[in-house]
């Protein structure tokens, strides 16, 4: 029986992990096909997805007015109702934000880290919905406020926030 050098195995595992991290294969937690379908529920309604930190920084540096930010989610217990609620609120309300953006945790991690700077003091939760006016959060719906609620209730609350701030 051949003796295995544990140092070589450790080095091979380390190099494999480093390669996956730098090529972003290891960070993507979900199948791309599934993410594309879920993300399309928002992008088909005009949302622009943030994919990196530069996009986030440029958006908030160069855009004034109101931005509706949806932190998307794979979670079956809250994600679908959050997306449907947002889309319904926008479709049935004459008051609309100037900009629609979305981000996907577990996929767009670099952008997620940057978004955290713009939603303080609120903790990042998935899903969540923020209305940001001229750089300040004026409305925020956290995951615990979404989970277990029907999309119609979520839409009503978002519509109220849009009426008040847009």
Summarize the structure.
Helix content is 47%, strand content 15%. It has seven helices and five strands; from the N terminus they run ααβαβαβαββαα. Helix 3 (53-62) runs parallel beside helix 5 (109-115) and helix 4 (79-91) crosses helix 7 (151-165).
Topology of helices and strands:
Layout: H1 6-22, H2 32-43, E1 48-49, H3 53-62, E2 66-71, H4 79-91, E3 99-103, H5 109-115, E4 128-133, E5 136-141, H6 143-146, H7 151-165
Parallel strand pairs: 1-3, 2-3
Antiparallel strand pairs: 2-4, 4-5
InterPro entries: BrxB/BrxA
Organism: Amoebophilus asiaticus (strain 5a2)
Pfam families: Disulph_isomer (PF06491)
Descriptors:
7 helices, alpha/beta, 166 residues, disordered N terminus, Glutaredoxin
């Amino acid at each position: 029986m051949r003796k295995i050098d544990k140092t070589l195995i450790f080095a091979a595992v380390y190099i494999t992990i480093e390669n996956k991290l730098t090529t972003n294969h290891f960070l993507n937690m979900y199948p791309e096909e599934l993410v594309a379908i879920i993300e399309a529920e928002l992008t088909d309604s005009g949302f622009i997805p943030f994919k990196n930190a530069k996009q986030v920084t440029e958006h908030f540096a160069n855009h004034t007015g109101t931005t509706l930010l949806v932190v998307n989610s794979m979670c079956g217990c809250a994600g679908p109702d959050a997306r449907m609620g947002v889309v319904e609120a926008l479709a049935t309300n004459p008051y609309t934000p100037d900009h629609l953006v979305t981000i996907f945790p577990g996929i767009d991690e670099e952008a997620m880290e940057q978004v955290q700077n713009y939603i303080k003091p609120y903790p990042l939760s998935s899903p969540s919905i923020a209305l940001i006016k001229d750089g300040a959060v004026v409305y925020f719906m956290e995951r615990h406020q979404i989970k277990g609620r029907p999309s119609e209730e979520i839409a009503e609350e978002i519509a109220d926030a849009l009426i008040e701030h847009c």
